[in-house]
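Recall that a protein's primary structure is simply its ordered list of amino acids. Everything else, from secondary elements to tertiary packing, is in principle encoded there. The following example makes that idea concrete.
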Amino acid sequence: MRWFLLVGFIAFLLGIANAALFPMVSYSAPVDARMCIPYKQFVKMIEEKYQEKVEGRGLAANGWVTELYTNQERTSWTIIQVNPSGLACSRAYGVNWNLISKDKGV
């Protein structure tokens, strides 16, 4: 049982060391990556607060729809997934989005 406490304590110390050595860069993120709310409410919030519009979407194998939102200046982006019941969950977000290429209908 003591080894379990020792392992937990070592993991705790490693977590503190990691936070001290690699501090997170902070910016105004649109949503928490675990946040899930009704789809229409999510889209309204992204559009009003961050001026992001949907740039692409696709259907995942699990039946969830994945959408990418960017703002016009491409300074911020958000990826959400929407489950079949209409609940949208933020999966990732960031800054400095760069579009590599556009589909020209080929």
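Residues 25-95 form one domain. The chain has a mean pLDDT of 76.
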